[in-house]
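Example 3.2
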Amino acid sequence: MKTLSFWFDPLSPFAYLAFDRLPQALQGLSYTVRYRPVLFTALLKHHGQLGPAEMAGKRAWTYRHVLWLARTHSVPFDLPAAHPFNPLPLLRLAVACSPAGEPNRWVCEQVLHHVWRAGGADATAPERLAELAARLQPQRQLDEDAARERLRANTAEALARGVFGVPTCEVDGRLFWGFDALPMLRQQLAGEAPLPDALWDAAEGWPVGVQRTPAPDNRR
C-alpha cells in the first residue's frame, strides 16, 4: 500500500475541490493519505509569486473557474464572504488536532467546509472559529508555540520537497499539483506511469530560452 501526502491550505478553493474529489478519483486503489497543512503564502513568497487572488484579472477568473468546476463535478461550493483571508487560525487549529500535526480526514473536512461550504459566511469570524474549535476539540492549545512550529515545519518540509502550490499530492517522490492533476495521480498510484520516465525526468532540465528579471516588490 502506498502513502501519499496531500499538502493543502484552506485558503485555496482548488485544495477544497481536490480534497472533496480525492476518494472518488482514487476509488478502487489501495493507499493511505497524510494530510499536511501548509501556509500557501509562504510558498508564494519563497518562489517570488503572487497568489491568483492577488492579480485583478486572474482573481475574477479564478472565482468563475472554481464555481464552474464545482458545478461540473457536483461539489457543494460557496465563496466565503471575503477572499483572500488570513488562514493562520484555521491552519493552526488543524495542526493542533493531532500530536504529529497531521490532522485526519474528518478534521480537514470540517476546516475546509468551514470556508467553502458555509453559505458565504465569513471564514475568519471569531464566533465561527470558536464554534469550529469547540467541535474539533484540538489536542493542543491554539496559542502554544508547538502548533505554530508544527505549521512552520510542515511548510519548510513542503518547500524542501519542491512543493510550490496547493493542492499538491506527493507519491513515489513525484509531485502532482492542482485539482486537474488527480487523473495523473491515479495513474501513478495504479502503477501506470503518467509519462515515460525519460519524459518525466527531462522536464527538470529543459533548456531555458530567456530569463526575465523579476520586477521589484514595492509592497510594504
